[in-house]
Amino acid sequence: MDWTALFLSLKLALVATSVLIVLTAPLACLLAYSRMPGKAFLEAFINLPLAMPPTVVGFYLLLLMGPEGRLGRLWTGMTGSPLLFTFAGIVIASIIYSIPFALQPMRAAFEKVDPRLIDSARVLGLSAPAVFARVILPNSLNGIAASAILVFLHALGAFGVILMVGGSVPGETRVASIAIYEAVETLQYGSAAMMSLALLPVCYTFLLVVHRLTRRRSS
Amino acid sequence: MSLQIRIRKRLPHFDLSLDIVCPDEMMTVVIGPSGAGKTTLMRVIAGLEKPEEGFIRFGDEVWLDKGRRIFLPPQKRKLGYVFQDYPLFPHLSIHDNAAFAAGKKKGAVRQLLERFGIEHLRDRKPDAVSGGERQRCAICQALASEPRLLLLDEPFSALDVFTRRDLRDQLHQMKEELSIPIVYVTHDVNEALYLADDLLPLVDGRVDRQWMQRSIARADTLRSDRTKAIREPRLSLAY
């Protein structure tokens, strides 16, 4: 039983989720309310990680984050250390890989906010950011929470992408999913079973919460 | 300050084409059948929709001038708009809804709530009060923002007849105190005659001064003699 791997998975999922929710909120707002041309193209591009095999996403990220890649060079220039096979590396990979999972529920929540409320707030003199903070956000909290939990679970279970850009450095990038895979590979079925069992109730509980959040909103 | 409107906007079945003036301190009642473009007119005045061509001026402030590409967004028009279906903010209490755009004038909000008889509901959420109470709150919300112009779009159409009469009386009183132009949309002839300083019948996007007379006359010929006798004298239309 690899406690470090489980702990690392939780840490990764928490960090990725918090960054993602803040990053995607404006994007979801843009997709929900703007009528800009080419929105469909932007959306399809953002949703690519949903459709492509994780290894393909991982491969592109490997190129992007490698010593010759744009992101890799930028990171090395800023911090002096490489990005591949580090915790920061798998955080960035998880974020990019999970964007669609954060975006879709949040966008749906924003779209569900009654447009008459937004009209009303505008007539009452609120600027666009104030409308977002005082009307849209408080009325889509459930959707945002649901989105956060889905992203958290998705990041908790990521495997292919993390293997490609992170490898399996103990305490740094060897998360639970990878530790379980390696345990099975080396025929340590007991250890794999324990770690799997530890993840099961976490995922189950969170899914129940998501169900509750989204159901209450629709009623 | 009076409101001057000259617009043309394409709607699915006809053009909304108007050239009107709503005088200061007066209630202009826009009346007409459903789908005549009444709500669109209100949304254009509020800046929530843009016409294809047109010009809107409030006092000496130009709100819209297609020719000079001037468009003042709804946030800056400082008007009050009471919508047909009173969309209150579901996450805020009645008091916070009324105070939504009131700034720091807490006392004024309290007075308004008292005046409209909903002060005792101040801490309730909108879904825990009745339709009439929600609509009172929506009116308080609009008035608390100290509007320069008040738009009321069939504000009482979803209410029962007693609540409606009550609120209508209250509005009639308030009209005297508020020295701002009010534009009131309705399809109810009684309501229009009771409230209006100036009547503006709108049919298929155009002002049709004869519409009221025509529709009252038509209703009379359709009605059997007995009900007609009950309805006479015709002034009963005006309450």
User: What characteristic shape of chain A results from the CA principal axes?
Assistant: globular
Question: Number of DSSP helices of chain A?
Answer: 12
Helical stretch tally of chain B: 8
Distance between the termini of chain B: 30 Å
- Structural class of chain B, please? alpha/beta
Distance between the termini of chain A: 43 Å
Query: Strand portion of chain A, in percent?
Result: under 5%
Backbone CA Rg of chain A:
19 Å
Q: Biggest interface and its residues per chain?
A: A-B, 15 and 24 residues
Order of helices and strands of chain B: EEEHEEEEHHHEHEHEEHH
What integer is the average pLDDT of chain B?
A: 87
Q: How does the overall form of chain B come out from the CA principal axes?
A: globular
Class of secondary structure makeup of chain A: mainly alpha
Q: What is the β-strand count of chain A?
A: 0
Roughly what is the average pLDDT of chain A, rounded to an integer?
A: 90
Please tell me how large the radius of gyration of chain B is. 19 Å
Helices and strands in order:
The complex is a heterodimer of chains A (219) and B (239).
Chain A (H helix, E strand, L loop, with lengths): L2 H31 L5 H8 L1 H4 L2 H12 L4 H10 L7 H26 L2 H9 L4 H9 L4 H17 L2 H7 L9 H10 L3 H30 L1
Chain B lengths: L2 E8 L4 E8 L4 E5 L6 H9 L6 E6 L2 E5 L4 E2 L8 E3 L11 H5 L7 H10 L15 H14 L5 E4 L7 H17 L4 E5 L2 H7 L2 E6 L2 E2 L3 H12 L2 H7 L8
Parallel strand pairs in B: 3-9, 3-10, 7-8, 8-9
Antiparallel strand pairs in B: 1-2, 1-4, 4-5, 5-6, 10-11
Helix pairs in contact in B: 3-4
Please characterize this protein's 3D structure.
The termini of chain A are far apart. The mean pLDDT of chain A is 90. With 219 residues, chain A is mostly helical. Chain A has helices at residues 3-33, 39-46, 48-51, 54-65, 70-79, 87-112, 115-123, 128-136, 141-157, 160-166, 176-185, 189-218. Chain A is 79% helix and 0% strand. In chain A, 40% of the residues are buried. The longest helix of chain A has 31 residues, at 3-33. Chain B is α/β, with parallel strands linked by helices and 239 residues long. Chain B is built from eight helices and eleven strands. In chain B, the strands form two sheets. Chain B has a six-stranded mixed beta sheet, with helices on both faces. A five-stranded antiparallel beta sheet of chain B has the order 2-1-4-5-6, with helices on one face. Mean pLDDT of chain B is 87; it is low at 232-239. The interface between A and B is medium-sized, with 15 and 24 residues.
